[in-house]
Amino acid sequence: MPHREAAQGAIAQRRRDEIVGAALEIFAERGYHATGIADIAAVLNIGHGTFYRYFRNKRDIVSHVLVHVLERLNDTIRDENAAAADTLDECRAQFARVAEKLFAVFTEEPALGRFFFAEALGVDRDFTRALTAGLNTFGGVTQAYLANGVAKGFLRADLDVGVTARSINGMILAAAIDAFDSRDPEKVRTRWLAAAPDLILRGIKA
Amino acid sequence: MPHREAAQGAIAQRRRDEIVGAALEIFAERGYHATGIADIAAVLNIGHGTFYRYFRNKRDIVSHVLVHVLERLNDTIRDENAAAADTLDECRAQFARVAEKLFAVFTEEPALGRFFFAEALGVDRDFTRALTAGLNTFGGVTQAYLANGVAKGFLRADLDVGVTARSINGMILAAAIDAFDSRDPEKVRTRWLAAAPDLILRGIKA
Amino acid sequence: MPHREAAQGAIAQRRRDEIVGAALEIFAERGYHATGIADIAAVLNIGHGTFYRYFRNKRDIVSHVLVHVLERLNDTIRDENAAAADTLDECRAQFARVAEKLFAVFTEEPALGRFFFAEALGVDRDFTRALTAGLNTFGGVTQAYLANGVAKGFLRADLDVGVTARSINGMILAAAIDAFDSRDPEKVRTRWLAAAPDLILRGIKA
Amino acid sequence: MPHREAAQGAIAQRRRDEIVGAALEIFAERGYHATGIADIAAVLNIGHGTFYRYFRNKRDIVSHVLVHVLERLNDTIRDENAAAADTLDECRAQFARVAEKLFAVFTEEPALGRFFFAEALGVDRDFTRALTAGLNTFGGVTQAYLANGVAKGFLRADLDVGVTARSINGMILAAAIDAFDSRDPEKVRTRWLAAAPDLILRGIKA
DNA sequence: TATGAATGAGCCTTCATTCAT
DNA sequence: GATGAATGAAGGCTCATTCAT
């Protein structure tokens, strides 16, 4: 029940999705604070009063954008089953697949990453909390993979799966930032996909 | 020469530092956009006109806050010499020292981390660039440590030092975020200090 | 296209005209610098935010006020045809008509003159330039009358029409200032209308 | 007694004059409202607090500047004696002398004219009144010349000396404005000095 | 006497939000 | 449902003026 007065039909839902999409693009482009409701409406060629028929206010839309982004990321890794890997090689293959997919989604929809990593943090306190909560969710997913490996014995028994999961997510974040900054994202992708799995699995020592 | 018309004496410099400190606190607390110049002035019990004797405008102060934060972090790791480690154990000890120091600085001045990781990204485009540039500097430092290890043979010869350096910084970032969110930062500290060095050096595989 | 985002309809144009009228009154009353946007809005019983829907900023409105004033003055003398007079008497009659009209317009709309002669010069450099350009236009009109008389032989052949035109406009200015300052503008009007034509014509006639 | 606390000595008076001079220059240059007290002080290399030891406030200085300008103009025409001319030719010569002197003073001190005609009107209501009063004084002087001529019979008996005096001053004003706007003030001067006396005398002579 | 650091009234401008049409 | 005109809270910034040193 998004907004008391909002339309409930399928067309209305489509309109809502359009607004979320446009808002994501433009928030990612200019940042939350530099973006006006009128800017979002202008992109969609709708009156900016119309916006308020679908979302309560500016704070409301950015929440919905975050949900949208988190869902897109979730979709990306949903297919993988944390318990599917039984050996280190299968685990490595799984890592590679997830990494590929993440790179793909961030490459295809750059706004996703830019919003998530760059523009979303300045919204406000509550939003930062929500964002962190979303990150923790992904931390939980990663943790499940690790726990599976430890249980099946192909990962170190003494592994702190919580800390390790967060570390891996920090690496993903670093990779994403690297890709955003780079003029040649493809090259960045190749380097990370080549180096990261070994780094995680084997560490850096000789 | 920070502000053309600002006083240049030692007292003036102290006042400037006070303003930077207060701004850091309050930016970290409420975020850049939610903070007014009047808020900063109120904390210091000065008229808000006084602020403008020391900084050109709101954008100016946040730049100075960033510089301050980066300098604080630099101070933290300055003492270590990237080329000092000759063995894996020395390297591990070096890692531990730096990690301790970073945890200490973020624990003693929580605003530092909150500003750096949470509120600083929403300022504007140029600021994000400056922030990223600052992060890259730290990436370069980390990379120097890794290159030393590779050269001396106690780190993998096939290590991609660039990607690895960024990864490690991503882990530091994850640790910092974890600490901010936690109600028991001490516990977080203990866990990370116990787990991270092994994670980096050995990886996760059994 | 006065303001990109402003409404373009007839009602909007009326609103724009109302604002220009109110601004003229109040600029003439208090002067440009002593007038706030809020003052203009208050006169019209509109929110001061509304002002910005119709004019870009304070500088914008004063430019429009100037254009309005110049147009009003132009309207006043438009009906006369500089080439219509063929004799000195016709010329004298023409002078008298224009003088009557000018007195009428300044008497009916005192703000017009007060803005034009008293408050408009302190706006800024560019505005003064625009104002002077407007004055020069009127100088050109006056000059056309004189040139007509010289060509037809009822004005002195050796007349410097440029200087004379400016002189006459200076006299008009003096008359207007005299009228503003006087407590009895009607008396001023009578005196000037009686004395000025003779003064001019004896000076310029062949 | 300019300012209660101001110094009364000769050095103090010199300082006061310096400030008036600097203020005249900079008011003429940028206009009253665009000029800050600090700007005036900066020109003189004095602290801007010092300004307030000599003048009550910003409004005070501009009044003194006006007095200074009016005195300068008065000095220019003081030497002439309105009653000295006994014939039309002597009157013409007198006019020419005064016109020369006025052109000279405005050419030598352009700030004088620019302040008087261009920047002084936007100050505020009271100031405009004072300025008009000053103009009226000059109107009185001009009127004395005319009355002398009428009394001695070389100017028209039916001359409205009041209106005519103001007209002449209006012409002077027009000439001054012309000179300010021109890139070649010397040429302007030559044209006006050639044309104006004839224009006036033919209009006013018996 | 000179200074300039401190102050805050005041003003312009933006933009999220409302609501009559 | 859609629109966009109207609104005013909010905040950045300037600068005349004061006063302690």
From TrEMBL, chains A, B, C, D:
Keywords: DNA-binding, Repressor, Transcription, Transcription regulation
Coiled coil region boundaries: none
Pfam family, one: TetR_N
HTH tetR-type domain segment(s): 13-73
DNA-binding region: 36-55
Protein name: TetR/AcrR family transcriptional regulator
